[in-house]
Amino acid sequence: MKRTVTTLCALVLMALCAVPLRSYAQVNGELWPDTKGKHINAHGGNIIKYKGTFYWYGENRPYRGFTTEAGVGVYSSKDLKIWKDEGIALAVSEQKGHDIERGCIMERPKVIYNRKTNKFIMLFHLELKGKGYEAARVAFAESDSPTGPFRYLRSTRIHAGRWPFNMTEQEIAYAKTTKANDWKDWWTPEWRQETERGMYLWRDFEGGQMSRDMTVYIDDDGKAYHITSSQENLTLLISELNDDYSDFTGKYVMVAPGGQNEAPTILKHNGTYWMICSGCTGWAPNEARMFHSKSIWGPWTQVASPFTGANATYKNFPASKTFGAQGTYILDTKSLGIKGTKSRFIFMADIWNPEHLSQSLHLWLPIEFGKDGKPVIKWTPNF
To answer: Could you report the per-residue pLDDT of 218-273, keeping only the tens digit for each?
Structure first.
């Protein structure tokens, strides 16, 4: 009888343990619980692998409100499906006037590991408390451990007093004649022409360029690049980071000036770089934009959105609305030694819930490639 009861208890315990584990599997358009049964609160972030463990960093969003009350969160996993909450990797400061004082806005955190220094470097978009989106800075933090605590280093506008390395003397001379503050009516052909010629670049030249929605990309040679939405979210900047990833070298280019792109994500396939961005419509979804180039420095050419098909499981958002989501990162499974996924590349995105940002959903979709070599992203229940 004792053996029977013991066996029965063991079977019941196994059954109870098995049910929650199955529920941890990611399903697009649904809440994704961590090991404690809470929805994974890591938005706008990225994933790295270190010593056999995956680490997922992202914005720890409040249930109500838009400002940052905790900091940047981090989760760990062995299989990309079951995630453990490791707490806050970079916490807000309680010091009044500090760059990351509680109530600031910390967005789009990206963490990269530097093999030379053995440091984990975090970059993120920072807005100062009470200043709305006026600051438009990039911030740096570092840690000796993937789970932190990260040490805040500094924040800054970027490339103050520097021109894009590929601008000619003639182009620079023309940019200096532009006057951004004189334009009351945007979106006219004349305004667009001036924007393309560096009108907002010149406006912010001395104080440094804006940096908002951003990502970080490490190329095959170990060089790292910061890609950000700048110039009132009108233009993308691609900037080279130094060898320890903690600052800029000063080398950068403008991409699609006046195109109004944000939320950049990037991959490299068969020698071609592909960048997928979103338009600028606040929390509302819009049609993704895609660019390609043979060099990280361009020239970049815009092509049609890679999204196709319909989403039949989440409010029926079509491909023309990016299935209701906005991209945050492209996961390269090969570089991370991941096996068993449907594709080498996974497009990570957020289905934003502005009423309850902590409950924003995660969208992970495999990226395929058509016969013409272009990325294709279709709706699937999971990656």
So the answer is: 999 999 999 999 999 999 999 999 999 999 999 999 999 999 999 999 999 999 99
Residue 330 domain-assigned?
yes
As a whole number, mean pLDDT of residues 123-142 equals: 98
Distance between CA atoms of residues 341 and 323, nearest Å = 21
Domain total of the chain: 1
Both tokens assigned to 228? 């950000």
Torsion of the alpha carbons at 6, 8, 9 and 12, rounded to the nearest 10: 160
The mean pLDDT value for 346-372 works out to 97
- Judge whether residue 25 has pLDDT over 90: no
Q: State whether residue 103 is helix, strand or coil.
A: coil
Residue 282: which residues within 8 A CB-CB, separation 6 or more? none
Domain limits for position 362: 261-383
Q: Which residues pair with 346 in a beta bridge?
A: 331, 366
Which pTM value belongs to this model?
Answer: 0.92
Residue 121: name the closest of 146, 138, 100, 142 by CA: 142
Under the banding of pLDDT at 50, 70 and 90, the label for residue 313 is confident
CA distance 255 to 231: 11
Rounded CA separation 239/252 (Å): 4
CATH number at residue 294: 2.115.10.20
Residue 179: CB partners within 8 Å, gap ≥ 6? 199
Alpha carbon distance 201, 215 (integer Å): 20
CA 68 to chain CA centroid, nearest Å: 17
Query: Which residues sit opposite 348 in a β-bridge?
Result: 329, 364
